[in-house]
Fold this sequence. Notes:
Elements: H1 6-13, H2 17-25, E1 33-34, E2 41-42, H3 45-59, H4 64-76, H5 81-121, H6 124-141
Antiparallel strand pairs: 1-2
Helix pairs in contact: 4-5, 5-6
Amino acid sequence: MTTFTIQDMSRRSGLSEPTLRYYEDVGLVGPIDRDEHSGHRRYGPRDLDVIEALACLRAVGVGIEDMRTYLANRARGRAAAAEQRDLLLRHAERVEEEIAAQRARLGYLREKAALWDARERGDAAAEAGAMERLAGAIGRLGVLR
């Protein structure tokens, strides 16, 4: 059977070695087999499959408890499909909210730059327009309420 060291697993998954150890400590993976001579971790193909799934979940901001739920649902298969879908859609909504917040920040920065561009050119009409748009951008940021 093919086995992987913690370094191999880190390279394959993109997760750091401390993260891999932590995931084992909190019970997300493992227990991981150990080399009988050195005591070093030896990950198997099944471990790789789980860790790759966890790496993807981590990359999209899923927390430990939802990772735990995801893995439990994954083991249950079709019987947990609706719960699995709902968990993933809940995180998709969170990502959409984060994207909207980032777009608001981007809009503010662009309008602020346009204001300074108009000031540099001495264009009072463009400056007034930028100030008006900037007020809207500030409102979308959700600050100063």
